[in-house]
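User: Modeling request: complex.
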Amino acid sequence: MANIPYKIYLSENEMPQFWMNLQAYLPKKLDPMLDPKTGRPVTEEGLRAVFTDEAVRQELNTTDKLIEIPQPILDFYRMYRPSPVVRAYNLEKMLDTPAELYYKFEGTNTSGSHKLNSAVPQVYYAREQGLTNVTTETGAGQWGTALAMATGYYGLGLKVFMVKSSAEQKPHRKAVMETYGGTVIPSPSDTTAVGRKILQEHPGTGGSLGCAISEAVEVALNQEGTRYLLGSVLNHVLLHQSVIGLEAKAALDKYNITPDVVIGCTGGGSNFGGLIAPYMADRLEGKNNIRFVAVEPASCPTLTRGRFAYDYGDTGRMTPLMKMYTLGSGFIPSSNHAGGLRYHGMNPIISQLRHDGLVDAVAYEQTRVFRAAKIFCKSEGNLPAPESNHALCAAMDEAIRCKETGEKKKILFCLTGTGFFDMPAYMLYNSGKMTDSIPTDEELEQGFATLPEINL
Amino acid sequence: MANIPYKIYLSENEMPQFWMNLQAYLPKKLDPMLDPKTGRPVTEEGLRAVFTDEAVRQELNTTDKLIEIPQPILDFYRMYRPSPVVRAYNLEKMLDTPAELYYKFEGTNTSGSHKLNSAVPQVYYAREQGLTNVTTETGAGQWGTALAMATGYYGLGLKVFMVKSSAEQKPHRKAVMETYGGTVIPSPSDTTAVGRKILQEHPGTGGSLGCAISEAVEVALNQEGTRYLLGSVLNHVLLHQSVIGLEAKAALDKYNITPDVVIGCTGGGSNFGGLIAPYMADRLEGKNNIRFVAVEPASCPTLTRGRFAYDYGDTGRMTPLMKMYTLGSGFIPSSNHAGGLRYHGMNPIISQLRHDGLVDAVAYEQTRVFRAAKIFCKSEGNLPAPESNHALCAAMDEAIRCKETGEKKKILFCLTGTGFFDMPAYMLYNSGKMTDSIPTDEELEQGFATLPEINL
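Assistant: Request completed. Predicted assembly structure:
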């Protein structure tokens, strides 16, 4: 077998031509999304008021295992993809582990993360539908930046509701979005009814993804030629993100490598769902016995301490109800520097797989993942986003266990993005002043109390 | 001929194993560096007080055309190299030009620029020599970040004197260096004699590369086990940066592409010298007729309005004298957002080539290069460093001229780094408040008045 290089790149014609629809591989169909007003399963038509037509079709597509990527999207993908699979040789050496560590690095594009993979098709479909404007929310700022790049390229207007605490931590993110022509509004804001309501009930709140989603949805519903684009949680987002896993598998297959463990961080589930897609599809067909590990922040422990129940996707209770792991749409996570992981719910496919025992989940405190990140920085010359630090910390722990047991496990994880825009978090960690905040059982109960009645 | 992909990557075993020493290709030897005290040619021994032994050997090596890259350096290079040559298809479409635009993108590593290419060997050589600490200056912050990554990896101490105006514009750059274990001091500072002198003479100055160099050299001379590492200007830096050009040429050669024009921005000359190395070597041997264009800021017009003369490399007049294009070591350029280009001098090889008519030079105002950058951002999905904007603006102008003449020129330029840490500059440009500042002839004369007497 050929030596494994530091970075495995696919050539352009080895890039995936199809997305993989994990939903169609599930042994039984997901519980349906429910209309928040009627409590009955949503229709395509109902969803089209908020989302683009094609996103809706993809969201509800339970039959097509592979969906062709349109050529104009491939043309954009080729500007920044394929992304490399990196063999972390120097980290292995530093940890003195017999394990092999591989990471799929999604941070080499200007948005700095994997989010661009779904922003491009979503904006493309909006343009094809003749829309003129799109709205969205952003937590860490990665999704908003990705959308700004896509709307800048395809020529659509963009309004971004940015979680206030993130907007304050990351003024430069805002500047990038504005450079690409986007408008950025810290959320909760007084520009929407739901924003004004939240501000009244929680004055001084730093906001949350849930709040910001409600504001963006409200604008999409009320402004002509406008739809809402979501960067995580939904099934069509996972569909687009399957390029991560498809590229990773194609790259590793070249060297006959099948991972023993596949690890990703989880906020809404987009990178994790995309990373595991082809491996999980094989697993569901009995072709491998890979362990899949979702890593979340202890401050927002959806998969490890949440309930598997119907819930709203947003704080304002405007979205359809989804069956998923959730902390309750009323749960407001404590401030955490992995803004992209501060979400009360979880993608339904990931939730179902977790419920069926096919996905493991662990929760890490932020000081612990930053400690791991600093080791990673120095040995691999790469400074990751706080979200990514969760996955790499779990991967490093696995590698350290291998040192104890002597196992030569092959570990694959997703490094979703760079930390270039997260330096205030690193500055806080470097100063020794970063703290951890884990919700008490009582605080979780308060969140669960906001679950809708349908679960009773 | 095969279709040209969006990004041309070399495989790991196609990566250069040797650096190219452009100095050894020159038809006649460079004028010697002079000792600032005696006025006589420097000796290896004299330089060793400041620089590492190997850097000195390479600096004065006028005979070896190729110099082997040690394996431990290749091991680091492989973590972040090869960098891609990107065919800017979408920019071509946007400009509606028959020209072909290619850019070598050096911004995919965490330091965000090409500077890492020389930081790695310089720190490696310091460690091999048994040194414990290194010092340096940094302007835009790219060189300091690169050195922090290299010292973090090889385990050496690092003190960075950062041009004060840059340090204020870029607190996050500072945080990255500190995350890797470096110490950052805004310059001029009161920690050195030369810093205190400059502060006294120019209270409130934003500093310059020249000042910061003097401070770092002073520390290297006075602290045991410590040497000074320089990120540009010197010949051994250009040697290391030749990986840029060697990779670019190897990638383009695969598709039988020889550029008609090769363009780079110039501060001290490092990326430009590295980019042109193999093409200029061929040119000097009569094998091509490429036009080489150096692009500098109009606020610091070394090659376009400077003198070809002996001068100090630093404001404090501590370095050897080099024969180069210079504005005088006493010239303090106006504030400019391309911090990496605010240097009074220029690498001696580039200077000689310019003097011999083998390199063209143009100067651009900063508002103009930012205007070009915004077009580039939207069409190529890539947000470059202000320094890089100078090269891309010149490349775009060339492509626009091709539209007028119908020429299908092949244009290669270096996109040295990302603008992630330069968002204050973009914010200023977006606000419409960025201004230009071009030195008057009288201001230039004041700088020339500081040239040393040896030129008389």
